[in-house]
Design goal:
By secondary structure, this protein is mainly alpha-helical. The protein contains six helices and three strands.
Length: about 260
Amino acid sequence: MAKKKVETTIEDKLRALYNLQLVDTRIDEIRNVRGELPLEVEDLDAEVAGLDKRLSNLGIEVTAYEDEIKAKKLGIEASKELIKKYNEQQKNVRNNRAYESLTKEIEYQELEIQLAEKQIKQLKALIEQKNESVTETTTKLDERKNHLQHKKDELDAILAETQKEEELLLKKSKEYEKKADERLVNAYQRIRTSVKNGLAIVSVERGASGGSFFTIPPQVQMEIAARKKIITDEHSGRILVDKELAEEQETFMQGVIASI
């Protein structure tokens, strides 16, 4: 024999929805404790990666300049060898034309040496500038790495305290969503995203909806207390429940959250 489907009453849905609100509020509190830390860690990670890349590029540039200096020095040595060779050849020439041709070759190699020495001097100045940048970037990188580690430790400590609770609360949130009715949950989520404190369902306190100064007419208060239909606050759009139901669910959910 098939089991008879138990119909969920409006009151059951309201209780499930209020439980959902209490769970979601606790999740909000946990996430507020983390605050901007995850974003800060992400930004610092990106900054450290950028500084690492800059250091790497500076190192590549310095190495390239050093290799260029080595090549210039080899060129100087080659020019000196040619000058030596041309000087020796001048001793054996038999006419002025050959002698002058060798003299021009010697002068050319001397100019090549002067140019190479000038370029080496410029390259050394560039290396000095790059090394200053390396020192500055290394100092900044060390400082940002230390700051990043501090923020990661801070975030890890918070996560260690709250991550398990948050995961279990998220499961509870899904449970109460199923119990509350899909259409009602969609309305709840819509209201929740439109209000600053995330409270989409509130109780009636002193004749007004929680957090509001607008009085709710006695007839409407009676309808809310009857728990026969879903009633919203005409001013804020929030779903309303009576204070007694709210207190009962708050007591119930305190036990649920404490056991997590």
